[in-house]
Amino acid sequence: MKDTGMGVKAIVIHQGHVLFLIKPNGGLDLPGGRVEPGETPRQAVRREIEEETGLEARILAATGACHHVTSKNRVVQIYGFVCESTGGQFRLSHEHVGHVWLSLEELGGVIRPQDILAACINTRQVA
């Protein structure tokens, strides 16, 4: 496997709800993407949230990192963040076909960021 770089994913919270984006295949996703050259993961996650949703956000916490193996057998280090929506006008990018805001009750009452990230990017956790 070849190490190909870094990526980010964001758990975006607004008024007690978590944002999930819907992929063209119907799967759930979180806002995120590649860390560009010269960019920190914190800068990248705020940029990706704005690009994919039109929302502005502030970082509440980093959730850690995990490896994601792509379909081309490349390894990407994914950094997760919990963020709060602070403004902007919601819009979807071309990458997604829909979205849903799920309440804490719908998510079982407790947000476990590592579980949400793992479920959405199909990863295995690493230290």
Morphology call = globular
CATH topology (fold) name: Nucleoside Triphosphate Pyrophosphohydrolase
Strand tally is 8
Structural class: alpha+beta
Tell me the β content: over 45%
Q: Helix amount, in percent?
A: 10-25%
Q: Largest sheet, described in full?
A: 8 strands, mixed
Which CATH architecture would you pick?
Answer: Alpha-Beta Complex
SSE order: EEEEHEEEHE
Cα end-to-end separation:
19 Å
Give the CATH superfamily: Nucleoside Triphosphate Pyrophosphohydrolase
Mean pLDDT: 85
Total helices: the number is 2
**Domain unit count:** 1
Low-confidence stretches: 123-127
CATH first level: Alpha Beta
- The rounded Rg comes to 14 Å
How would you explain this protein's 3D organization?
The chain has a single domain (about 1-125), classed as Alpha-Beta Complex (Nucleoside Triphosphate Pyrophosphohydrolase), CATH 3.90.79.10. It contains two helices and eight strands, in the order ββββαβββαβ. Strands 1, 2, 3, 4, 5, 6, 7 and 8 form an eight-stranded mixed sheet that branches. The chain is α+β, with helices and mostly antiparallel strands and about 130 residues long. The chain is globular, with a radius of gyration of 14 Å. The protein is about 15% helix and about 50% strand.
